Amino acid sequence: MRCPEATTKLVVAHRGAVSAGAHENTLAAFRRAIDIGCDMIEFDVRRTLDGFLVIHHDEGLGGLTVGEHSFRELRNAAARLGFELAQLEDVLELTRGRIELDVELKEAGYESEVLVMLQEQADPAAVRVTSFHCAVIKAIKLLAPDIPAGLLVEDLSATQIAGFYAQSKADFLAPRYDLLEAAAQIADGLFVWTVDSDEEILATLRHPRVAAIITNRPEAALSVSTRTSRVPE
């Protein structure tokens, strides 16, 4: 855990903490993030053909398209690849009261289902929802205005970011690391991804418009964050 004088900016484990052999976006990775003292985990939600909300980043899994196959088929495909495919309800049960959540919706169409589960099985004060899709963010803000929603951005100009941000009605921006300065012209309270080198971690933690860093190296980020208040500018 970080020492008391450490920065208050959040360290977010991108798809969990995958050290010690844990596969990304799995309960094992999320347990590891909890154990090492991360403030939050980031993970991806998709819906299967038969309506299960599963935790997986890519559109495909073991040669199958997630939205076109059943949970059973996908779970078996994951098992063949050596990991256990988790459902959203599994993650909420594991993390309740233990760590905050950054829930990325990969597609539009199941926002209300995700929100019902978050409102019933998680502490709304410990949840944020993010997406690259303006339509998803607009739906979240319509259905659950009290849950913070963030627009993920990459490969855009500052002008484009500003336009999509306004269109989405998002509460905050989540830019890729190389867009930090462009996003900082538009909004405060940034959630910046994916910040992995020690130098990037330190610089991002010091940035006045950053609220959180999302990293594939949460152990390193936690170590760096303990030093930010003591390292000369």
Provide key terms for this protein.
9 helices; 233 residues; disordered C terminus; disordered N terminus; globular; alpha/beta; TIM Barrel; nine-stranded mixed sheet; two-stranded antiparallel sheet
Count of DSSP strands: 11
- Total domain units: 1
Number of helices: 9
User: Can you tell me the CATH class?
Assistant: Alpha Beta
Label the overall shape: globular
Strand percentage, roughly?
15-25%
* Averaged pLDDT: 93
Q: How do the helices and strands follow one another from N- to C-terminus?
A: EHEEEEHHEHEHEHEHEHEH
Helix and strand content put the structural class at alpha/beta
- Main sheet properties: 9 strands, mixed
Share of helical residues: 25-40%
Name the CATH homologous superfamily.
Answer: Phosphatidylinositol (PI) phosphodiesterase
